[in-house]
Structure formats: C-alpha cells, structure tokens
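Field reference: sequence -> structure
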Amino acid sequence: MTDSAIVGNHADRSGGGIDVNGRLTLVRSTVAGNGASGGLGIGGGIDSFGISVTLINSTIAANTSSRDGGGLFTASPASLTNVTLAANTAFAGSGFSVSGRTKTATS
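Structure field:
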C-alpha cells in the first residue's frame, strides 16, 4: 500500500489496523489509532505472521494492544526504513514486538 491511512480500527484478537498472513509493504503510509484486545491482544496497529513486512517512510502511532506490540507485532522477517514509531502502548513491546526471525531497522 502506498500513500494510505489505516486509522481508528479495532480487532478483538489481533491486528487492529492490519492483520496479514502474506507479504505487507507500506510506503508513505500511516497506521494510527488502532487497537487489539481480548484473545491474543497483539499487534494493535499491525500484526504479521506472514511472509514479510516492509515499512518505508511511514508512521505507526497511537495504537494499543492488551498484550504485545502496540504499534507492530511480527513473527515475519521485517525491514523498517525511515519509520516513526510513536505513542503506541502495550503490556510488552509498546512500539515494536518481535518473535523469531530476522528484523532490520534503518533511518
């Protein structure tokens, strides 16, 4: 997705804004004000158990989860370039929570 906004959504399990099991690429996009609670309660903004996550020049902000990864929870290979993670909340990993595989972050 390019030049997109995913704002103000909620999930009762995971991935309040985006729940992906494939490949996710966000460019110049915003994921904000989303939440995940109950059940797993992971990935308030984005939850990924898919192939890969690539975020470029994007903002992940003001998302919440009741467990892990307020902004982003991923068990997928992930690459973040020039990404702002701000004001996300969670029990653990408020901005970014990872499980397993290789993650890369650059600015």
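Note: The mean pLDDT is 91.
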